[in-house]
């Protein structure tokens, strides 16, 4: 009788332990997939960063060509520092990929071990019941963190002094407050207001301040600054048409040169359009300078606090008047 009771208790205990092991296995499968997703993203970042670094080198060269000849030495130093930083960041990304690959293999090995444990006798399961949770918890604690590639924004000597020669004030004279900002399904129209017909991506629930120029630029060079200190999500730049009707404002994204800032999962993403491009530089925290050289077909953005370049669109032919534009979303 005592033997039967003992066997029954052991059987129940074994079932309980097997259920716990199955839960741990499910957790490990999920962790393995998460690491694989992170690994894929990290691998993509390497290629994106290499391409971005090449583009950024060209932008920097263009900036220095506008300066006097005595800045050539600073240009060379700037490029060398960028090259060194890119190499260091690429190495960090490769090391991060390696760590993630190692953890993925560790998770797979632990999963195989747990699979084997499920088929072991009850007494052996009892011996390892405390070891399994501690090992999986340790793996979770050692989960590698993804690298956030961000290049230093080196100052360009004298650039703000030069740009201030073309300064214009009060360029954002038309203003309004709205509650929704949306982008059409084909990414060609940005809509601000309550009309969401045909919209696939929306930033809702927060009030936004929108301002634009009453007068469009058709020639010459123009520079102005925008304060984004108190906003995490914003859009600024120049665009062709701004259409207003009732509570709706829309702009044609194909005729716009814009800089975007968006906060996603406690990380800030800085990007531009035409074509969409992530900017791997330090996010500006204060004033942003916008320079429109209409005759030469360029639009550039500057971090005023650091005196550095954020991004410069490659020269194009402007066939339409362009208006300054700003959208600040409430924190």
From TrEMBL:
It comes from the Eukaryota. Residues 150-331 form the B30.2/SPRY domain. Pfam families: SPRY (PF00622). Residues 72-99 form a coiled coil. Keywords: Coiled coil. PANTHER family: E3 UBIQUITIN-PROTEIN LIGASE TRIM. This is Tripartite motif-containing protein 64C. It comes from Physeter macrocephalus (Sperm whale). The gene is LOC102995789.
């Amino acid at each position: 009788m005592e033997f039967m009771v003992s066997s029954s208790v052991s059987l129940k205990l074994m079932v309980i332990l097997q259920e716990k092991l199955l839960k741990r296995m499910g957790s490990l499968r999920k962790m393995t997939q998460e690491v694989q997703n992170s690994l894929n993203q990290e691998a993509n970042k390497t290629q994106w960063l290499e391409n971005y670094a090449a583009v950024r080198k060209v932008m920097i060269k263009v900036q220095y060509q506008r300066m006097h000849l005595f800045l050539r030495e600073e240009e060379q130093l700037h490029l060398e520092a960028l090259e060194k930083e890119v190499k260091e960041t690429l190495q960090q990304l490769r090391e991060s990929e390696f760590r993630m690959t190692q953890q993925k293999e560790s998770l797979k090995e632990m999963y195989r071990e747990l699979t084997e444990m499920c088929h072991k006798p009850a007494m052996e399961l009892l011996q390892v019941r405390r070891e399994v949770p501690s090992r999986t918890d340790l793996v979770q604690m050692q989960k590698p963190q993804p690298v956030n590639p961000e290049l230093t924004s080196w100052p360009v000597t004298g650039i703000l002094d030069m740009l201030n020669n073309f300064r214009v004030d009060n360029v954002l004279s038309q203003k309004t407050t709205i509650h929704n900002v949306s982008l059409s399904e084909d990414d060609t129209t940005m809509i601000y207001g309550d009309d969401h017909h045909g919209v696939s991506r929306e930033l809702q629930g927060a009030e936004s301040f929108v301002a634009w120029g009453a007068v469009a630029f058709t020639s010459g060079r123009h520079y102005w600054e925008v304060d984004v200190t108190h906003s995490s999500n914003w859009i600024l730049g120049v665009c062709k048409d701004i259409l207003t009707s009732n509570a709706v404002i829309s702009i044609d994204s194909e005729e716009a040169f814009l800089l975007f800032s968006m906060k996603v999962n406690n990380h800030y993403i800085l990007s531009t359009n035409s074509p969409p491009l992530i900017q791997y530089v330090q996010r500006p925290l204060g004033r942003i300078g916008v320079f429109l050289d209409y005759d030469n077909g360029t639009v550039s953005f500057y971090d005023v606090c650091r005196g550095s370049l954020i991004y410069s669109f490659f020269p194009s032919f402007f066939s339409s008047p362009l208006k300054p534009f700003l959208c600040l979303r409430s924190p």
